[in-house]
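#data-curation
PF: Archiving a pair of folding outputs for the training set. Convention for this channel: one message per protein, sequence first, C-alpha cells after, nothing in between. First:
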Amino acid sequence: MKRALKWLLALAGVFVVLLGAIAFALHLWIGTADFRARVAQEASAALGVPVELGGLSVTVWPLPGVAVDHVEVKSNPPLSFERIEARPVWSALLSRKLEISTLFVRNAVLPQDAIAAVAAAFRKAHPEDKAEAQAAKQTSSGGSMLPDRIVLEKITWIDMKGQPNAVDATARIDADGLPAQADITVTQGRWDGVKLKLERKDNQWTIDGHIGGGTIAGKFTSNKSDKGEPLLDGDFETAGVEVSTFTAPSHTLTGRLDAHTELHANLRDLSAVADTSQSQTKFTVHNAVIHGIDLAEAVKTIGMNRGGETHLDTLAGQLVTHGRVAELNNLVASSGALSANGNVTMDAEKRLNGSVNVNLAQQVAGTALGVPLVVGGTLDAPTVTLSRGALIGAAIGTAIAPGIGTGVGAKLGEKLKGLFGK
C-alpha cells in the first residue's frame, strides 16, 4: 500500500513538472512580440477597429488560462481593458474544440460613444450575409467562442454626458448567447448602490432590483419582429424609489416614486437602444418637492418670481419616452390651497418646454387666482413665465384693478391670445 502511494505521489510530481514546463513554454511563445502582433491583427480585423495589446501570458493559478493585458481599442474615444482572461473547457480541447469556460474582464473603461463607434465599425466589417456564414461555419465545427460564465470587475461605463458608473457583475450565458442569470452591482457613480438580479426562463427574464431606497420588479420578454429583428418588451413596477435617483445629478424634483412601466425596444443595434426604445409610465410621487420654483409665488407675481420650492401632497401623471425625448402628460398636482395641471416635454439636452395651469384658493391670494404659466429652462434650472397673450392680459388687468385684476387679466389674456398675435 505504501509502495503504491509512493508511485502515485511520484506520478503526480511528474505531472506537475510537465504541466509547469508546458505552461512555461507556452508563456515564452505567446509572450513574443511576433505572436502578440498576430493576435492584435486578428482582433483588429474582427472588430473593424485597430486593437493594441500590451502583453499575452499563460496563467496556471488558480486555473489554467490565457490572459491579455492592457488592451486598447483605438476607437474615438478609445475602449480600454486592463486585463482580459479566458479559461478554456479542457475536455473540449481534448476533442480539438475551442470552448471558453469563464471570461474575466477587469478594470475596463467603456465610453458610450466609443461603444457606438465600434459597433458601427463591426457592422461595416461584417455584412449580414458574411456574419451568418461565419456563424454557420462555427456551429458546424462544434466549437463556440461564447463563454459559459462572465465575471466583470470594476467595469466603468461612461454615458453620453460624461458621467461614469463602475459596475461589478457575474453572468451565466446560455447557448444562444443570452444571459441565463446575472447579478449586477453598481459600485461608483450616479447609480451607486443599485443592485439588479436577472433570472431567465425560456424567452422571459424576471428582474429584481434595489435602487434609491426602493425596489424595481418585473419581467422582460424577447420576441422577433416581422422582419426577424430581436425585440424586447418589459413590464415592471417601481415602489418607494427616491425620484431624484433617475435625474441625478439634478435634484429639481424629490419624493418617493410609485410607478408602472411598459417598455418596448428593438435590439438590432445595441448601441442605438437608448435612442430607439419607447416606454409608457403611469406614476405617483408622494411628498413631492419641486426645487427651484415656487408655483404659488409665480402665480401671485404673474410669472416674475424666481427660485424657491413647491411642496406637494400629490403629484401624478404619465411619462412617455421616445428615445431620449420625454413627455410628461396629464400632470396633476395638489397641496393645500394650490392645484396645478399641465404637460411638459424634455428633449435629449434636458431642455423643458410646456405649460402648467396653476390655481390658488382665496385664502392664499386674497381671491381665487388661476394663471397659465409657460415652463422653460432646463431640468437643472427650470423657469416659469407668462405667454405673450397672458402677459398682455395681466398688464391690462393690473391697470384696471391691481391685485385681483392681475390674475384675472392673465387668464383672460391667455384665452384671447389670438387677438394679440402668437
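PF: Second:
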Amino acid sequence: MKKILFVGLILIVYCTLYIENCFSQSGWYQVTTPITDLYLNDIQFTSANTGYAIGPIQSSNRGYILKTTNGGFNWQSIYIDSLWCWTLYFLDDNTGYIDGGYDLGVIKKTTNGGLNWVTQTTNLANCFFCIYFVDYNTGYAGGKYDAVAKTTNGGINWFLVSPVLGAFYVQDVYFFNASTGIVVGGNIYKTTNGGNNWNVCSFSNNDYRSLYFANNYTGYVCGYWGGVIFKTTDAGENWNFLDSLGSGLNNIYFVNPAEGYACPGNHSIFKTTDGGYNWSQQFTSNLYYFESIYFLNSLTGFIAGNNGIIMKTTNGGNVFIGNNNNNIPDNYALFQNYPNPFNPITKIKFDVANPPLTKGGQGGLITLKIYDITGRKIQTFVNEKLNQGTYEVSFDGSNLASGIYFYQLKVGNNILDVKKMVLLK
C-alpha cells in the first residue's frame, strides 16, 4: 500500500511539473542567481555575453553587483561594502559606474569589469538614483531634492549644475550629447546647455520613474502613479499621453521606435508593437516586482526585480501555450496553421520530441520563424531549447499586407518543415 501511494505521489509530481513546464510556457523564463535576497534595481548588458545587475540585500544595506560572462546563463556576485547600490551605467565590458542611492554623495567607478571599485570625489550631500554617460568624459547623475551632478573628466570630479526645480527626485536621465538632455522626476525637463537651465516639457505632474529614447527624436517616459506612458517624436519638446497600465510603473524600454516593454508594479511584463498605443501582457507573477528591463536585440532581453529575480527571453517575450492533452510526442512535427486563410490572427502548432534532435544541430535549439514570399524574415517566435511537448503560438498579421507567407520549424541546423499560409484581408 505504501509503495502504491509513493508511486502515485511520483506520478502526481511528474504530471504537475509536466503541465507547468509544457502547457503554460511563456516566452520569459527565470535564470539562476546566486543571491535570492537581493532587490535588483537595475540591469544592463555591455555585449552579448557580459551583463551586470545591481541592488541591495533586502534585509540590510549591503550592496551587491551580479555579473555574467555567458549571456546570463550563470551569474557571480561582487560585494560592494555597505553601499546601498541603486543603479549602474557601463560604457563597455570593463568601465562602469554605480551610485549609492540613499548613501549620500556616493558614486563609484570600475575599470576592470567590477572586480574593484574606486569612490569618486563628489563632496556632495545628495542621494543619487540614476547615471548616464555621453562619452568616457562627460556624465550626469540625478538625485534627491532636484539635484543633478555632472562630470567632465570621467568621474574624477563631480559638481552640481542648476537644480531641476519641481523634480524633487530626479529618477532617470538621458543625454543626446554633452549639452542636450532630458531628466524626469516630478515632471519631464530638458536642457540644451549642459544643465545650466531646465525647461518643463510636460505639465502633467507624476512620479516619473523611467525614460527611454529609441532614436534622437522618439522617446518614452512612464509614471508610477496610474502607470501612465507618454511619448515624444520631437526630441522631448512635446509629450503626448499614450496609455495607462495600472499603478506602479517602474521601467520602460524600447528595442526600436515601435517595439517596447514596460513593467508595472502589478508583477507583470507588458509589450507594445505599435509605438506604445496598445499594450499586451506577456507575463505575470505574484512573487516578484520587476524593476529594470534591458534588451540586446529584438529577441533577447532580460528583466530584474526583487528576490534576486532575473528573467530572460530569446523570442521577444512571445507567449506560447502547449496543447493540453495526454499525448507526449515521440517525433518533431509542424502542423498546418488554423484558420487558413486567416485575417488577421492564426495559430501554429508544433511538436517537440525528446531527446532533442542534435545531428548537425546546436543541442536542440528550436526556432520557429515567419517569412514573406520573397524570403524576407517577418518574425521569430521561438529561439530556445524547449521541453518535450506540444506547443502553439498565435501569429498576428494586422500590420502585414494580404498575401502568401511561410513558417519554418528548425532544430539546430536542421530544417524540419516549412508550411504555407495565406493572409486574406
